[in-house]
Amino acid sequence: MPLVLRPGLSWCLCAEQVVFLDLARDRYFCLPEALGDDFQHWASGEALGHAEQEALVAAGLLEPGEGEPVAATRYQSARRDLAIERKDIANPFDVLVAAAGQLRARRWLRRRPMFDIPASLAQHRTPRQGKPNDETRLHKIARAFLISAALVRAADQCLPRAIAVYRLCLRHGIVASLIFGVRLHPFAAHSWVQVDDAVVVGDLEQVRLYAPILVLP
User: Fold this and answer.
1) Is 201 exposed, middle or buried (0-12, 13-18, 19+ CB in 10 A)?
2) CA 99, CA 186: separation in Å to the nearest integer?
3) Which of 27, 52, 81, 209 could bridge across to 48 with cysteines, CB 3.0–4.6 Å?
4) Which pTM does this prediction carry?
5) Residues 158-194 pLDDT 10s
6) Which pLDDT band, with edges at 50, 70 and 90, does 128 fall under?
């Protein structure tokens, strides 16, 4: 019986465990070792026995359907933090735009289930036709959001901040990725925006602690 990953699920390997983000239920969860091994065999394209398939379906991970196995989420490692590279590049207007964008993203998230976030953000993407990213604009955005923390609370607000930055990048024609990450022991989740190996918002030292589990391009 052909099986596909249930819609709304993405996964990664974190601390040698299979970890899932279930957008439909707005939760993260880990698999027991045996079930995680079976799931990895499926994800790598290996044939599974009937009992293993049934266990993965019963766990709510797979469902009947045609499609390819879904590999673990990966993304380029972050090496730069744009918010601290150019301390001379922000201006008050950019800071106000950053603060307002974060407040709008907070309101937007209160009205929208997590499952709708990828599709809703995708509506704002437009083809770039090979234009290079504007590095100066990226530094301005990153610096403005760092300074805006003095106006709008940044603690525990990683997702609205990341969404606000992602939208601003789209507005300026910048190819950015909104990344959801997870860590274990202790469990925590984080969201950030990255362009190639550079963190725009999310704090490089924090980002390095997390394994990407969902990437919105």
Assistant:
1) buried
2) 30
3) 52
4) 0.93
5) 999 999 999 999 988 899 999 999 999 999 999 999 9
6) low
